[in-house]
Design a protein that fits this description.
The protein is an alpha/beta fold. Strand 3, helix 2 and strand 4 form a beta-alpha-beta unit. The structure holds S-adenosyl-L-homocysteine, iron/sulfur cluster and FE3-S4 cluster.
C-alpha cells in the first residue's frame, strides 16, 4: 500500500477523534494512525462530539482496561445514532490489543462498530476507511471490517514520514514479546518479538529531531531485547543503537522503556555511565520480590539477580533513579511472598513505580490457577502503594535545593506556569515565559510533592541546539 500523499489538498475535510488506552506504544500507534488518515482529509479533534470518525485504540492488559472499552463503545453508539438522525455517518473503529484479542466478540457485542484492526495492521487504515465509507453509503450499518492478521510486511515500512515533531516524542524500535510471563497477554496481542532495522530507526530519529524533537523515548514491550540489523551488517544491541543515536546533533535526551531484567547486557549498563544524553532514569519491572512467585510468573530471573543488576547500574551511574512494575495477588502468592515484595522495595528504593492487582486474562497460564480472594489482593495493593508512595515523596523531597535541567514541554494549569520534566522523569512546574517551550531551562527546586516538583527558574537556555547539547553534557557528566 502506498500513502495517497497527493490527495491531502483535495480531500474533503473530516474530523477524527482517537482515544488511546494502555501503554506508550499505543500512543505512538495513535499518532501514526492520525498521520495515515491526514491525506484522506481527516484532522484530529479533541472530542468525540461531532467527529466523523472515532478510533478507540485499546489495551487488553487487565480486565478493567478491556471493560472500559466496551462502556466507551456504548457512549460512541449514542453519538453515532444521533449523527445518523441528522443524516451524518460516523465511522467507529476499534484498534489495538482488545481488537487483536477479542475482534469477533467486539463485532458481536457492538454491531455499530465499523472496523476492527490489530496493532500490526493499522498501516492498512486508509484502505479500510475507504471500504467502510463505501459500505456506509449502501447500508445503514455499513460494511464491517476485521483485520487482525500478523502480516508478513511490516507496518513500519508503510508509515508516513512526518516533518514536524513535539519536543518529547516516542519512537517504537521493537515490538512484541517471546517471554510469555504467566499473567501477560502481550505475546498474544502484539505477537512475536521483532526489532526494526537500526537504519530505519536512525532515519526516523533524525527526522524527528529536525522536526523539533529534543527528547526521544525508545519504545518496545521488551525494548532492551532489541537486536536489529545494523548498517554495518551486524546485529545491533540497544546499547549500540543508543550510542549511534547520541551522535545526532540536537538530540539532547534519550530514554527507553520497557526493559526486562534478563536483557540488561554489559554494554547497555555501561552506556548509562558513558552516554551523557541517556537520562539517569530507568523503568525496570520486577513484578515480585519472591523467588517462588517470580518462578510461577515465568520471569526467569530471581531477586538476587535483580538486586545485583541494580548494583551494577548504580555503579555505572550513581544517581540513576529507578522505577518498576509490581503485581500483587498472582495465583499462589502467600503472605510471606508478599512480605518479600515489600522487602525488595525497601532495599531498592524507587523514585516511582506502578503496582497492580493481578487480573486473570483469558488464555494466559496463570488464569487457569486458583485465584486469591479479591480482598487479599486489595489489601496487599494498598500496603504496597503506601510504601511506594512514601518512597516517591521522599525522592521528590530530596530534590529540594537541587538545580535541575527541565525540558519545557507545555503550559501548566495556572496562567504563566510552565511544565516539563527533569532528568529523573519528575514533572517540574515553575513560572516562566512561553518562549521557554522547547528549551531546557535551569530550575531551582523549591518543593517536592507527591507526584511532582515545583521550582524557580534560574537561567533559560534558548540558544542553538548545539549549545544546549554541550551545556547538558557538561552538567550530567560526572
Ligand atoms: N514488558 C513489560 C511489561 C508490559 S505490561 C515487562 O516485562 O515488565 C505492563 C505491566 O502491566 C506489567 O509490567 C505488569 O506489572 C502489568 N500487568 C501485566 N499483566 C497483568 C495482569 N494480568 N494483571 C495485572 N497486571 C498486569
Ligand atoms: Fe508481558 Fe512478560 Fe513479555 Fe513483559 S516480558 S510483555 S510482562 S510477557
Ligand atoms: Fe495494553 Fe497492548 Fe500496551 S495490552 S499495555 S496496549 S501492548
Amino acid at each position: 500500500m502506498t500513502a495517497p500523499s497527493t490527495r491531502r489538498e483535495t480531500a474533503t475535510k473530516k474530523s477524527l477523534f482517537i482515544k488511546t488506552y494502555g501503554c506508550q506504544m499505543n500512543v505512538y500507534d495513535s499518532d501514526r494512525m492520525a498521520e495515515l488518515l491526514a491525506p484522506s482529509g481527516y484532522e484530529t479533534v479533541a472530542t468525540a462530539d461531532g467527529a466523523d470518525m472515532i478510533i478507540l485504540n485499546t489495551c487488553h492488559i487487565r480486565e478493567k482496561a478491556t471493560e472500559k472499552v466496551f462502556s466507551e463503545l456504548g457512549r460512541m453508539r449514542v453519538l453515532k445514532d444521533e449523527a445518523l438522525d441528522n443524516g451524518r455517518h460516523v465511522l467507529i473503529a476499534v484498534a489495538g490489543c482488545v481488537a487483536q484479542a477479542e475482534g469477533q466478540e467486539i463485532l458481536d457485542r457492538a454491531p455499530y462498530v465499523d472496523m476492527v484492526f490489530g496493532p500490526q495492521t493499522y498501516h492498512r487504515l486508509p484502505e479500510m476507511v475507504a471500504k467502510a465509507s463505501n459500505g456506509e453509503r449502501s447500508k445503514r450499518r455499513g460494511a464491517r471490517l476485521i483485520d487482525t492478521d500478523f502480516p508478513v510486511e511490516s507496518k513500519f515500512d508503510h508509515l508516513p514520514q512526518e516533518t514536524t515533531a513535539a519536543t518529547s516524542v516516542f519512537l517504537t524500535i521493537q515490538e512484541g514479546c517471546d517471554k510469555f510471563c504467566s499473567f501477560c497477554v502481550v505475546p498474544y496481542t502484539r505477537g512475536a518479538e521483532v526489532s526494526r532495522p537500526a537504519t530505519a530507526i536512525l532515519d526516523e530519529a533524525l527526522r524527528l529531531v529536525r522536526g523539533g524533537a529534543m527528547e526521544i523515548t525508545l519504545l518496545g514491550q521488551n525494548v532492551n531485547a532489541y537486536h536489529g540489523d545494523g548498517p554495518d551488517g551486524r546485529e545491533w544491541s540497544l546499547g549500540r543503537l543508543i550510542r549511534a543515536l547520541a551522535e545526532i546533533d540536537g538530540l539532547e535526551r534519550i530514554r527507553y522503556t520497557t526493559s526486562h531484567p534478563r536483557d540488561m547486557d554489559d554494554d547497555l549498563i555501561a552506556a548509562h555511565g558513558e552516554v551523557p544524553q541517556l537520562m539517569p532514569f530507568l523503568h525496570l519491572p520486577v513484578q515480585s520480590g519472591s523467588d517462588r512467585i517470580l518462578e510461577a510468573m515465568n520471569r526467569k530471573h530471581d531477586v538476587a539477580t535483580y538486586l545485583k543488576l541494580i548494583d551494577r547500574l548504580r555503579a555505572a551511574r550513581p544517581d540513576l533513579a529507578l522505577s518498576s512494575d509490581f503485581i500483587v495477588g498472582h495465583p499462589g502468592e502467600s503472605d510471606a511472598d508478599f512480605a518479600e515484595t515489600l522487602n525488595l522495595v525497601s532495599r531498592v528504593g524507587f523514585a516511582q513505580a506502578y503496582s497492580f492487582k493481578y487480573s486473570p486474562r483469558p488464555g494466559t497460564p496463570a488464569a487457569a490457577h486458583e485465584q486469591l480472594p479479591e480482598a487479599v489482593r486489595s489489601e496487599r495493593l494498598q500496603s504496597l502503594q503506601q510504601l511506594l508512595g512514601a518512597q516517591q515523596r521522599a525522592f521528590n523531597v530530596a530534590s529540594i535545593g537541587q538545580t535541575q535541567e527541565v525540558l519545557v514541554e507545555r503550559a501548566g494549569q495556572r496562567p504563566g506556569q510552565l511544565l516539563g520534566r527533569g532528568p529523573y522523569m519528575q514533572s517540574v512546574h515553575f513560572e516562566g515565559p512561553d518562549r521557554l517551550f522547547g528549551t531546557i531551562a535551569k530550575v531551582h527546586i523549591t518543593e517536592g510533592l507527591g507526584n511532582s516538583l515545583a521550582g524557580r527558574i534560574i537561567t533559560a537556555e534558548d540558544a542553538s541546539s548545539t549549545t544546549q547539547a554541550s551545556y547538558i553534557r557538561e552538567e550530567v557528566t560526572r
